[in-house]
Write a structure and sequence with these properties.
The chain is built from eight helices and 13 strands. It is of the alpha+beta class. The protein has three domains: 104 residues, no CATH class; 83 residues, Phosphorylase Kinase, domain 1 (2-Layer Sandwich), CATH 3.30.200.20; 63 residues, no CATH class. It is globular and about 55 Å long.
Length: 258
């Protein structure tokens, strides 16, 4: 925690200077090498963080700093915390992640054109994501918008997805804003060849093996465990993989219960 506090202090004093970026990058490398833990997550979830790549770890650090700076009235070393609204937290997290991403060359202003040129045409678009894919590729690329109350929770959702569903782990490669100014996380994910959509019974068995049970409030698509809430587990988000024959979750809403 002392090392993370030093990073917070460096951001507060110098912004994303070369020295601050070096400190953050060294911390990211040590997290990926297993010599440091990011204490926001338990050991199993920590593996999901590392699967998400260095940009996910860095953005998570910056998001935590943003929340901390608001809850302590701008003094990251203060023990006196206040309770800002989620919209305030979200706005600052987006702003600072954008600054950090630009300093790290992880930001693209014209991402849709770039992604189409590099990864193929847009093949799907929903409330949460735009999906790009070209025949023969082993991965899809997504521009993922947040449906969570803060950007930090959107980043946590990627960590938790990777922990629960490592076969479709999401790897963050950058950040952008779309034509409407909406902040988006750019990521890759393995392409799953769909044999068919999973049945409710197959989804129930899959999540039960991971410690979840139906919460009885979502027409059978929402589940809970002691620690997590798993939602939107309808068949359009859970395929039967043509190669393995197993139900495979490609997308869901996952968050901490508290």
């Amino acid at each position: 925690m002392d090392r993370l506090r030093k990073i917070y202090e460096a951001i507060a004093q110098d912004g994303f200077s070369d020295d601050t970026l070096k400190e953050i990058n060294n911390y990211i490398n040590d997290i990926q090498n297993g010599t440091e833990d990011f204490l926001r997550f338990n050991l199993s979830e920590h593996a999901g963080l590392c699967k998400g790549g260095a940009p996910l770890i860095g953005a998570s650090i910056v998001a935590c700093y943003a929340r901390r700076s608001l809850t302590t009235g701008g003094n990251v070393t203060s023990s006196q915390e206040c309770s800002p609204a989620n919209w305030e937290i979200d706005a600052l997290q987006e702003k600072l992640i954008e600054q950090w991403a630009k300093a790290m060359n992880l930001w693209e202003d014209n991402s849709e054109q770039i992604l189409t040129a590099e990864f193929g045409p847009m093949i799907a678009q929903g409330a949460e994501a735009k999906v790009y894919y070209s025949d023969g590729n082993t991965s899809v690329v997504k521009e993922r918008a947040s449906i969570y109350s803060t950007t930090q929770k959107a980043l946590d959702a990627i960590v938790l997805h990777n922990y629960l569903f490592p076969e479709t782990a999401m790897k963050v490669i950058g950040f952008t804003r779309d034509g409407d100014g909406l902040f988006r996380i750019v990521l890759t994910q393995p392409f799953i060849r769909c044999l068919r959509l999973a049945s409710k019974e197959e989804i129930d068995r899959m999540v039960a093996e991971k410690g979840f049970q139906d919460n009885w409030q979502g027409q059978g698509v929402n589940y809970i465990s002691e620690r997590l809430s798993l939602e939107d587990m309808h068949p359009a988000n859970v395929f039967i993989d043509k190669l393995t024959g197993n139900p495979t979750c490609i997308d869901c809403i996952v968050k901490y219960r508290k």
